[in-house]
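Notes from the 1:1 (GR / supervisor)

We went over the backlog. Supervisor wanted to see one worked example end to end before approving the batch request, so GR pasted a single chain during the call. The sequence is below; no edits were made to it. Supervisor asked that the structure be written out right there so they could see what the output format looks like.
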Amino acid sequence: MLAGIPGSRTSPSCSLRGLRRFAHGAERYGTTYTLPSVVAALRFLDEDGQDVELDVHEAAALLALTDELEAATVSACAQCRSRVLATVALVDLLDAAQPHPRSGDLISLADEAPTLHLYVLDLMTECRHSLWRDPGFAEWLDVIEGDAPDVRS
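Structure output shown during the call:
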């Protein structure tokens, strides 16, 4: 039984029709339901601030297909998934990997980037990047400034 909807046995199907029926039933019984929102897990940015965000499932699939983006990584935090990527290497890596639904968006971002780097911000991990010691950190920080409020300076 769904909470607040007497007599219901199962959740509605994920079809639009099922969601409408579910919403109508909820209104009828004075209950409101909110559909879960999609939360971004990784944000890929170029120096101009253009970005592509991947949700948790998209990010997990991409990292699995590309061996954690290691072949394209120029610099990375040892404590999270934030990193600096070489655009040419990223395009090559995505071309060689099995298809991913967002590969086209990432390739377009890399192809149109004003510099040779893209910057990845891990939105799911609270990290101060205290172990990120190479010069790539300063470059990454300049680009993501404002997107990650709790970063060491």
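Supervisor's comment: The chain has two domains: 1-35, 40-144.
Batch request approved.
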